[in-house]
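EI: anyone free to look at a 106-residue chain?
SC: sure, send it
EI:
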Amino acid sequence: IYSWWTPKEQWQEVGKTEIQGNTNNPDFTTTFKLDFYFERHQYLWFKLDDDDGQGGVDHIGEHETELAVIVAARNNTYEGQVYKGSTKRGRLYVRYESVAYDNNLM
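SC: here you go
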């Protein structure tokens, strides 16, 4: 996952999921904590690759959206179309949960 709301005005890597072997429908367990700023554009770019575990990586496709769109998704689950160029390559599902902050804590 890459983000574009950083002061450097370029894509910055947020993190990577774990590698899962031989599955057409992976269910990743890696989580990412992102700060959400109301009324600010926070772009996310999901790059999906197939890693065979032996140094060979094939690009499956990618998806771009905004964090606000994910946060507004019904039932805390966002669904997006994965494309490689103009070809549809599958669906991306992102589950999210809100984390409350206490402003009195340091």
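EI: Strands lie at 2-3, 12-13, 43-51, 57-66, 77-84, 87-95.
SC: 👍
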